[in-house]
Amino acid sequence: MSDRSLLPVVSMGLFIVITQVFAVYLSVFFKAEELQAFGDPESVLNPIVIVVFILLFTLFFLFMHERKSKWFIEVVIGLAVFLTLIYSFTALFGRVFGLGLEVSFLYALAPALFLFGLVVFHREWYVVNVVGLFVAAGVVAIFGVSFTVWPVILLLVVLAIYDAIAVYKTRHMISLAGSAVKMRIPILFVVPWERDYSFGEESFDGEGDRKAFYMGLGDAIIPSILTVSAYSFVGSAAAFGSFVGCLVGYVGLSLLVLRGKPQAGLPLLNSGAIVGFLVVVLVFGLSF
């Protein structure tokens, strides 16, 4: 394996690690303040709602892109990014300085506006990566405290199957990734091959040589939800099992990605997280 191929693989793995650790840290604040996406974290309807939302968003994205309405997509995603940044910084200030919800929210507005401004006016790959980490960690933390483990496992299984179909059969996920790269929207991580790389300067079609290595935020977000859920409702040992399992799944995914073709990330990442969690639960006799 060359240094050129090793660097992006290690970097993407590091993005997953940071997302999980940061999300666990933020989740403590969200749980303490009872900020949850759903009222009943044990309901199996919760993951169904998430899956339906993902499907609708994908259809919306592809439809609007076909109609050349990229500006509308950017407005919708921009609003979602800005709101998530506020949530993330609110939890961060609450954890670091021990502030209450209202005060943390006020402090969160300034850094959220600053990062959002960078996305709007200086949308380079490193800006997208920083924003992506805050967005990913915030989403994981919120949903991690909103689901107990069984609904999360159901969510991971369903989305792993969907991801495989979307990449290998319908291939619309590749089209979605290509559109995200062209529009330079912060819903993916980017690691360039060369120092003078500029985000969005290439056409991404999932094949051939590329000037950067890409990974959608979903690959970092979805399996990480199990880690936060396990931490919140089972314990740190179970969360660590999910964390390690996800990384093992990432190693397997990397070996496939290095062949040069796009791969569905969630089948391996989600499977690794679930197996890692279950191994720890069985070894230590934990209940969930």
Largest sheet data: 2 strands, antiparallel
Query: Order of helices and strands, N to C?
Result: HHHHHHHEEHHH
For the termini, the CA-CA separation is 41 Å
Strand content: under 5%
- Counting structural domains, the number is 1
In DSSP terms, counting alpha (H) and pi (I) runs of 4 or more, how many helices?
A: 10
Question: Could you tell me the mean pLDDT?
Answer: 90
Shape: globular
Order of strands side by side in the largest beta sheet? 1-2
Question: Class by helix and strand content?
Answer: mainly alpha
Which consecutive residue ranges, at least 5 long each, have pLDDT under 50? none
Helical proportion?
A: over 70%
Q: In angstroms, what is the radius of gyration? A: 18 Å
Number of strands: 2
Kindly summarize this structure in a few lines.
This protein is mainly α and 288 residues long. It contains ten helices and two strands, in the order H-H-H-H-H-H-H-E-E-H-H-H.
